[in-house]
Fold these 4 entries.
Entry 1:
Amino acid sequence: MHRSQGLLFNCRAATMTGPAPYGLIENAAIAVAQEKILWVGASTDIPPALAALPRHDLGGRLITPALIDCHSHIVHGGNRASEFEMRLKGASYEEIARAGGGIVSTVAATRAASEDDLIAAALPRVDALIAEGVAVIEIKSGYGLDIETEIRMLRAARRLAGLRPVTIVTSFLGAHAVPAECSGDPDSYIDEICIPALRAAHREGLVDAVDGFCEGIAFQPPQIARVFDAARQAGLPVKLHAEQLSNLGGAALAARYGALSADHLEYLDETAVKALAGSHSVAVMLPGAFYTLRETRIPPIDLLRRHGVPMAVATDMNPGSSPMCSLLLAMNMACTLFRMTPEEALRGTTAHAAAALGLSGRGAIAPQLRADFAVWDVEHPAELAYRIGFNPLHARIIGGALWH
């Protein structure tokens, strides 16, 4: 059912705004028109000018902002189930990568896939997220590591938005790994392939942000800085995989460039936390990778709280370290593994996830924001992070249109 305007009522609204926990409004009503929220408040306070709008009864259900997956690698070729077995036999992530596995193995499969192949493989993953109330998915390149395939990945990501009722945000991740043909010469790869690929993709309008992987098995901060300089010249925001396996100072580098986000952050120190707070960057928690790699060092959640750094939560859906297509499961993992609260997890997949993508008009239920909602068969917002392997979604409302 589709509506261009209407009044949603008989619901509990977790607006994710205001001082109340979850921004919760009991017996709420939400007025929507032209894909925007006109008004939200208690049903007893509906303005007379809106009272005559067509009404839709939500049956007392919980309504939240539609969820946002702000870090994913959904577009890729092949899978790495064999590496899953290797890790269970004792091989580390770094050992697999140095032996030619890891990201580089996915590169071969992605290079061999056509644009249509990449879309066909990605659609079931996109559908799994949509089925959990997701309205925005960030998708990274980074499995091409040559100009042609990086652009093909980004074209595929853009096309997904025309095939499903979902917003796709793209990130250029050419600085993800050094391809085999450039082994031992990461600087030449950055200058001769990565940055030219970024510029070519940007000319096609395929890039919303620029990402990188700052780690011993990937790129050092000075190399990432050159990519970020190219992003700055193109007027593109940046984000960074940082401090996942060690502390190379990636998060501090990201903060110096005013990054939208720094992601992973298991080895983050307090100096870098302060830098992220000063730059208003979002710390993106990725418990799926922590779980899959059986890591033991959790991100410094208390430090991030103490210094007021907003925390997002995402799936990090990728074929190697986080083959997870459930944002609800990521929320549960953020609570059980990282000790985030259920409210922090929900803010992390709504308001803070929107901030991590630079989307000022999403992630909350407030006037003038986009009318993207998830309607749930639950009594309390904490249930969204509490249950495991259970999806209580009743419906998505995207731009004011109801999708069952």
Entry 2:
Amino acid sequence: MPKKLKVYEIEKEKQVERFYDRIAEGYDATHGLRVADAILEHFLIKSLPNGEKLNILDAGGGIGRFALPLLQKGHKVAVSDISQEMLKSAQKNLARYDEASFVKESVTNMTRHKEEEFHVVILMNAILDYCGNHLKALKEAYRVLKKKGRMIGNVNNRLIYCQNHELIEGKYDEFRKSMSTGNRHIIWADQKEGHMTHEFTLKELKRDLEITGFKIIKILGPFNLLPKYRLDDINNKEEYIKLQIEYAELQEYINNSQDFFFVAEK
């Protein structure tokens, strides 16, 4: 790798680490019980291999939101994250589970894990968008998965994110650039510093899963009815979740979805 590119990737990772260290303290309150995550949890659990106790890597697992239901079902879960502060929250949230372990690392460099160590690797809540080099992360996930192991996760839909930001704000040159490259620099809420993110087209997601060796099992549209950030304000949340689960399976609406949910096999 050229030296300049390596330095650039390291700085991107540092930006992500600093960002999540800063917001970790309040993350449980804002992200602990989101309707969007309940929908993702449904598809995560549904997509697991059947009939066995699994060894699972929750890569970029943050506060342990998706590790929790896996541990409750008796699986062994290693939670990794680049942010030490997020890991502290995960350790607190999962303290009662002996089958939980924790490691500080980037999803692009998981050398603390052996080859073919895990039955499942999960990359939830757009970790591939934020990691700086998603192809490296996919290769690492492939390396640590057992043969026939599964990778499960979700990524941002480039079209929807660029529509909701650059396009609606009338920044048409930025819209063209973001749609062309997928790369956008984001600052959320009252943060002074954000980080680079990479949004995906459906075609790109399929291509990159396949070129890193994965066989695609399914790709769904988990938020193709309403934007995921509006779901906590809707009425009758339980009925809505059922409705969205039904529609997520319909491929004709997949590009309406704010995220793509994927399941792939080594």
Entry 3:
Amino acid sequence: MNHSVPDVDVAIIGGGPAGSSMAGYLAKAGLKCVVLESENMPREKIGESLVPSSTRILRDLGFLPKMEAAGFPRKYGAAWTAASGASTYSHDFDGLSARTGADIRFEEREKDTGQKYTWHVDRGKFDLMLLQHANALGAQVYQGVNVSGVDLEADPGFAAVKYSIGGKQMSTTCRIAVDASGRKTLMGNQMKWKVKDPVFDQYAIHTWFEGYDRTAMAFKDGMKDYIFIHFLPITNSWVWQIPISDAVTSVGVVTQKKNFAAKREDREKFFWDCIKTRPEFFEALKKSKRLRPFKDEGDYSYAMKQISADRLIMIGDAARFVDPIFSTGVSIALTCSQFGHKDILQAMETGNFKHSAFKEYETSLKRGVVNWFNFIRVYYRLNVLFTAFITDPRYRLDVIQLLQGDVYEEKEPPVLTKMRAMVSEVERNPKHVWHKLLGDLTANVFAETAETMA
């Protein structure tokens, strides 16, 4: 074996959006990289709605023309609904007015991303397209490769990614290994760094429907292709409504594990029981045709004690997974590559592959994820506060900035500080008009997790 030159500069484990975008960045920069994907794409995947911050990365990679050509539904905005006529939403506080519905249009902050819309995507098609694009840029791509682990000390200065193809055990040496294995969290499990959130134990059951009238829950014109989040009367539970094509809509119920039925047939009943709590939604959805079997997902939120080490960085869902209520999954995956590839290029230039070489990436990602955690916990603790802030001109643009995925530049955006302070005020005062609206996820549920990521 030649110990002076590795097989590749960078070996990337996983070919989802995180791995593909990382491969694209590195291949464009002239590095020799390989992507080892365990599945044969296309494959079904949730996380079908993008946020505007993704546009910058897709533009960097020269991928926007392919997005336009693919004909994915354009996503101009987002909306949140609660049961109409709910008296609990009739109160005002500190100049804020609660609403049963709230919406945003991304064009309100168009200058941030250069266009008025992002997209909803069939993830099977989108992920395959992005992986093929990375290959076209020069990355080697192999599918159906089952990676079993990484030896970070295989040779001085090298790592070795171990995998099997056709039952044959093999390995590839590299200067840097990138774990983009998704929620399999290959290196998080190998290194015993994974920390599951003890409270945010969300589960989802979801499927696709054909022929659903997407205007059924709209409260304004022009909302047909918005993403909708419908609040449910079950605590900490909600439904997504995401356009996939002109005729197909993805619908999923998200709730805590304690509400989730154990038996599969009971889960389907649970899905429909949840939908029935929003009668207008149920009446429209039952007229449509279900296209896929129900599928469930669990263990929604976790973090890692660390997301880089000597010769290793972890990106996308392999590094953390945050409750997906604001459609952040793909955005965070792409942003990991945007930040992480810079440290990798710098490491290749300097020859320093120690943990310290990836400090900038780790700091930026952790800052953003902690902001997401704090934003989501405020949201769950007091939904009415979110709808009030999104409809108030004093705060609207700042909240839209958060919803765009721009959470990495500041330790804590001022609007988020304000929201957290108001939640604390409501918590302390049992006579507050909003106190009875508090969810059971307290304002400090992420304290321990956030500290591990700070």
Entry 4:
Amino acid sequence: MTRTGGYSLTPPLPAELQVEVTGSCNLRCRMCLVRYAPAVGRAEGALSYEDFRDLVDGLPELTRLTLQGLGEPLLAPHLLDMVRHATTRGVEVGFNTNGVLLDRRWARDLVAAGTGWVHVSLDGATAATYEDVRHGGAFEPRPGQFDRVVANLRALLAERAAAGAARPVVKLVFVAMRRNIAELPDLVALAADLGVDELWVQNLSHSFSDTDPAGQYAAIRRYAARESLETDPALFRGSFDAAAAVAAARGVPLRLPRLAEHVPADPDRPGCTWPWQSAYVTHRGEVQPCCMVMGSDRATLGRLGAGSFADIWHGEAYRAFRAGLRDHRPADVCRGCAMYRGVF
């Protein structure tokens, strides 16, 4: 594709979609915007099943659906109905969860519903490190939470095996930070012991460098600056190399991110193609180009109710946003994005 001949500013409706089925969460993790924003109640944060169906049924070419956002999907009151509706349509559907609520009943229901993937966040190989990152609702470590999540993972894998199923694909997701990176090799070993399908390691998703240093994103911006591995990549390369060695020895599929910013080789390809392929819809109906934006006041391109998804997708705001990416003049919010900079 060339900059002039490809990447149309009005592409076909997407085959992929990410929907925040709830804005409510049971944790207050250090690296998540939920910690630094007003709490969202379970009732007010829920996307209605009717709005969900209207949205996905309006996308006839939809093949992949991710049911997650800033909230914890297992708090969504209609999650199983949403999964079943998607699978009935032949859409592959899954989500990321913190795993705290993922008990055996949830595991059995998700397997039976045909869930395509369940990714579970585990940001440490020990209780002390994990619980220091993933605080409870009182902004404090919750003793026993690490063991609970590990037990829930075992139950999910056991229910999948008991059903003789290959799905859901179960991955561990590790957000690499200065405070937990030393435990990555041990986490690979734990992943092997559990028998998960893959361990996905990612950097912090955004630097928030586009925001006012003294504004509403000040706290998470400071946290990202302190914890980012990009500040001294050489210091953390050893942990990545050690993790890769354990993964090779134990047969664990391991995905590692880059530690230094990467410039795509093709200058005619946009720095990010997400706005041509997918979209992110919040529980309030705000349509954004991706989930990496984090914050409805940043790059909201339309709102459902004021117009259809198709109207928004082909509207002027979306076209202008795509034009900036296509012509390497991205919106400021993209410049601090780990995916745009090639280090996610």
